[in-house]
Amino acid sequence: EIMTDAGHDSLEDKLQHSVDSLCKEKQLPVTTLVYGNNVICLASAPTQEKAAEAAAYLETVCGLLSQLYSGINLYLSFGRPYADVEQIKISYQEAQKALLLWKKMGRSNHIVYYSQLGLYRLLFKIDDKEEIREYYHYNLGVLLQHDSKNNSELLETLRQYLYCNGNLVKTSQALFIHRNTLLYRLNQIRDLLGRDIDDALVRLELLSSIVAKDYLGE
Fold first, then answer.
1. Domains in the chain, ordered, with CATH?
2. Which residues are CB-contacts of 15 (< 8 A; sequence separation ≥ 6)?
3. Is pTM, for the whole model, over 0.90?
4. 95: which residues sit within 8 A by CB, 6+ positions away?
């Protein structure tokens, strides 16, 4: 599914025509249609390998269109491939969910696969958002309160520390702070949480809580 932030009625038609032409050149069996500001691409393939090749080519097409229409934001979102044609709707819904989450997270890469969303795929299946909220508040609440009260950045520090797999140098660089400042913040985090943030299972729970918070956009 290729989407644009622009709202011009004729732009989607141009994009659809460009996708059709490029796919025809590659002899890729793709059916396209315009829905709102989306260009929906339905690609068929006889094997998983061929499906992966089609997806890779559509990434190339998106790159070419991004250069051609440089004044707009283009996104390419993939749902999972299905064997049954009646499941096309499910694939489309997956692509929609993935893209909405990707935009909410502000990711710079404009290409997203639903199948590569990891833990977010599980969160999509939970209807009770309040349960997700309670989960991350239970694990991160003291940090959120401290940051709010003191205008500090302990949660962001923890986030980057986990993203960098506990590497102090990489975390300092990601946060643009001195190593000593990082060590001071990490000690604060340990004291507030009362947990060993270097324990693998604790890290997993804290990171999943951060993922849950991001998922809710809070």
1. 2-117 (3.30.70), 124-216 (1.10.10.2840)
2. 2, 4, 39, 65, 69, 74
3. no
4. 1, 77, 78, 79, 114
Q: For residues 52 and 156, what is the distance between their CA atoms, to the nearest angstrom? A: 36
Q: Is the dihedral of CA 206, 209, 215, 217 positive or negative?
A: negative
Could you read off the pLDDT of 124-179 as tens digits, one per residue?
888 899 999 999 999 999 999 999 999 999 999 999 999 999 999 999 999 999 99
Helix 48-68 vs helix 9-25: angle between axes, to the nearest 10 degrees?
130
Task: Measure Cα distances from 23 to 28, 33, 52, 92 in Å.
Answer: 5, 14, 15, 19
Amino acid at 156: E
Q: What is the pLDDT of residues 72-92, one digit of tens each?
A: 888 999 999 998 988 999 999
- Tracing tokens 């833990």 back to the chain, one arrives at 119
